[in-house]
Amino acid sequence: MSGISWNARGLENQLAFRELKRLVAEKSPTLPFICETKMMGFKCEWWKHVLGFDGFFVVDSKGRSGGLMLLWRTPFNVSILSYSSGHIDCSIQHEDKRWRFTGFYGHPESSRQHFSWDLLWRLGSLSELGNLPWLVGGDFNEICFDREKSGGNPRPFFQTRAFRDVLEDFSLQDLHGEGEFFTLVNRRSSDALILARLDRFVASFEWRLLYPASLVQSLEFYHSDHRSILLELRGPQQQPIRKHNVFRFEPHWITEFDCKDVIERGWCKSDSSLSLPNCLLSCKAALRVWAGACFNNLPRQIKRKRHHLNLLKSDYLWKHSEADIRELEREVEKLAHKEELYWRQRSRVSWLAHGDRNSKFFHARAFSRRAKNHIRGLVSSHGDWCTE
Asked: Within this chain, do residues 294 and 210 fall inside the same structural domain, yes or no?
């Protein structure tokens, strides 16, 4: 189980929506919270089904600014408590645990941020909910300490202090974890470059007792100038069953210029007196070799290029890499389109044209229930979290 917070900077853009689909497919979040959707709620309703969630709640944008969206899936049972242009507050029932989550979006204008802190303080002061473990996540549009910002003018002391006062009043502690420290880059030249840590998850002491081994990870930049933030709710991990790699003809191969030549060479290579199944086996072998050389693990290629793109967007390389960044973003987009065709063949019933009708419900909707074969650490018999 996990949650994601992301300032998408507008989801009507196809690239932004594709990034959201990638996040959902790769991280399988149970509770994503999206800021700055810049969309009306009626346009977001079909996303619940497209992204595979059981429920959703949307706060409409005001013109071309703002907009919030909260999605969830089982095993979470979510009840919306209150909402505004700056927050969505809900209670969550999970097995025998009941706790509270607030998706928060701080006002982007410094002169009006005191309204955001008043709102957060009032939410924390609700007596009927005061005994629930509390988790708050989102884009706060504010830093806690001077070290959380690099470049630009320093924040006035009273502004950073007001944010910290609210956190201290309700014992909300910043959940640290892995990944880059700064979550925002303004994509300017070196003289005007600003890096800041605006996106975070904070939790009360009672919530941290419920999930003591939870981990927050800041993910890579793509499309938005904000990193998405992943919160993993630690629980028992199961190892996936390893399966044999089955050969399938991929739809995106057709878009390659030399695909036809590979098929012809593979077919003609076999003896004409052989049966059709043997000719197909020969053709399959040629395609497997060709695809292995040209498309060796598309997700790994995309991940490697995204990592390179992330390095180019860092402060020490940004001033030299404007053209390189645009070119690399086009390459990532092209690979992402091929990967999308790859998963269309394996996932949704509505994508029947790209699928195999004889598969067992599209191989259990492809990858959706496959566990992730990764162990970050172990809990000892004394309850200590060990990573070495």
From this structure: no
Distance (Å, rounded) from C-alpha 180 to C-alpha 183?
Answer: 7
End-to-end CA distance of the chain: 23
Q: Classify residue 92: in a domain, yes or no.
A: yes
Q: In terms of DSSP H, where are the helices of the chain? A: 14-27, 41-44, 47-51, 113-124, 157-169, 205-210, 259-269, 276-294, 298-312, 322-344, 361-365
Domain containing 175 equals 2-232
- The two tokens of residue 289 are 């070799």
Specify whether 200 is located in the same domain as 274. no
Are residues 275 and 181 both part of a single domain? no
Q: For residue 119, what are the contacts with CB-CB under 8 A and spacing of at least 6? A: 84, 86, 87
Inside any domain, residue 266: yes
If phi > 0 it is left, if psi is from -120 to 50 it is alpha, else beta; for residue 280 that is alpha
The reply to whether 304 and 201 lie within a common domain is no
Contacts of 352-360 with CB under 8 Å at 24 or more apart are 354/251, 356/248
Question: Domain with 186 in it: what CATH number?
Answer: 3.60.10.10
Beta-sheet pairing, 31-35 with 2-7:
parallel
pLDDT one digit per residue (tens) for the chain, 388 residues: 889 998 888 887 777 788 888 888 888 899 999 998 888 777 677 777 888 888 889 998 887 788 899 999 888 899 999 999 999 999 999 888 899 999 999 988 888 888 999 999 999 888 666 678 999 999 999 888 888 888 777 666 556 678 888 888 888 888 877 777 888 887 676 677 788 889 999 998 888 888 887 888 888 776 778 888 999 987 444 444 555 567 777 777 777 778 888 888 877 765 556 677 878 888 888 888 887 777 666 667 777 777 777 776 665 455 556 677 777 777 777 777 776 666 666 554 444 444 444 343 444 344 334 434 456 678 888 877 787 7
Q: Is the domain of 264 the same as that of 180?
A: no
Q: Is the pTM above the cut of 0.90? A: no
Q: Decide if 117 contacts 163 (C-beta within 8 A).
A: yes
Query: How many domains is the chain built from?
Result: 2
226 & 118 share domain: yes
* CB distance 204 to 132 below 8 Å: no
Instruction: Please tell me the distance from the alpha carbon of residue 355 to that of residue 342, in angstroms, as a whole number.
Output: 10
